[in-house]
Amino acid sequence: MAFGMRFGEIEMDLTETGVTLRNLYGWPGWVIEVDIDWSTWSAGAVRNVPPPRTRSNARRPTDDPELVRRIRKAAEAAKELPRSSIWVVSVSLPTPHKKKADGVQLRAATIATMYNYALKLGLSPMRAISEVYGLPLVEAEGERAQPSRKFERWIEQARKTINLETGRPYLQPYVSELHAPKLWPIGRGHPMEPRRAQPAFPEPVREGQYAGRVLTLRVTRTAPPDWAAQEARERGSRMIGPDLVIEARWSSGEEPPSLPVMRGVSPRETPRRVQSLVKELEGRYPGAKVTATVSTQAMGQAPGAD
Questions:
Q1: For the chain, is the Cβ count within 10 Å smaller at the N or the C terminus?
Q2: 216: which residues sit within 8 A by CB, 6+ positions away?
Q3: By three-state DSSP, how is residue 191 classified?
Q4: Dihedral pair phi/psi, residue 59, rounded to 5°
Q5: pLDDT digits (tens, 9 = 90+) for 185-234
Q6: 147: part of which helix (H) or strand (E)?
Q7: Residue 230, C-beta contacts closer than 8 angstroms, at least 6 positions apart
Q8: Model pTM?
Q9: How does DSSP assign 16-41, residue by residue?
Q10: Is 170 a residue whose pLDDT tops 90?
C-alpha cells in the first residue's frame, strides 16, 4: 500500500517500509527508496533504482553526499507537511553549492524559488535556506540571527541576476511589506519559523468587555491506550492518541475557561479545528485576543521532535 503526494515535479510515495522519491533534479527516471523507522520517523538506508538500460558503472544519486542529506530530510519531512515540504522542493532544484556551466543562473533560480516558497509557508527564508543547504547561522541571545557570508552572496546574486525569460531579476529587490517573513496565526514551533516577525494578518482594533486581555491556548494530544501503543511498538510503528486537549490561560491571571476535549481529531485536521476554536472564543469574549500554540506532539510527532 502506498500514499502519494506531488510537489511540483517531485513525486513522493509513503509505503509500508518508507518513502520513495521520483523526478529528482538531474536524475530523470531514477527512483530513490528511503527506509523509515516509523517509531521515530527517522531515515535509514537510501537506495537507487535506476531506469532501464542504465550502465552498471553509471554515476548514481547516492554518490553525492550533499544530495543524500537532503533526500533523507525530504523523506523525514513527510511527517510535518506542508511546512517541511521545503526539503522536498529542494531536491527538485539544482544545488547552489556546485560550480557548473550556467552556475550563476541556476543558483539564482534555486535561491529565488526557495526564498519565495519559504515565505508562502510562513518560514524565515534565511533560516530555511541556511538549514537546507548546511550554512551556519550565528545566534546570540537577545540579538538577531546573523547569516553566513555565503548566504548573503547567494541572495545578492539572486537579486542581481536577470532571468532571461522574464527580463527581471530572479529575486525581486527587498520590500519589507512583501518579502519580510510573517508569523502564522497558529504557531507550531517549527525550527524554521521567524523569531521576530510581524503577524501574517494585521492586528484588528479590539473593542469590548475583554479588550486588552489575551487568552492563550496550548494544544496537546492525549496518549494512546497502553495496549494500542504496545501493539504498535511490536509492529515497529508508533501510535498517536486520538484526542486534543486544550489548556487556556488569561494574561490577567483570572480563572480560565474549561474547554472540552476535541475527540477524534487527526494531525491533518488539527490546525483547522484549532483555528475554528480561536474564532469561537473571540466571539465568546468580545475584545479579547486569543492565541494558540499547537505542540509538535499534537501534530503527531514524537515528543521533543522538531
A1: N
A2: 248, 249, 250, 251, 290, 291, 292, 293
A3: coil
A4: -65, 145
A5: 555 556 666 666 566 556 667 888 888 899 999 999 988 888 877 887 77
A6: strand 146-147
A7: none
A8: 0.54
A9: SSEEEEE--TT-TT-EEEEEEETTTT
A10: yes
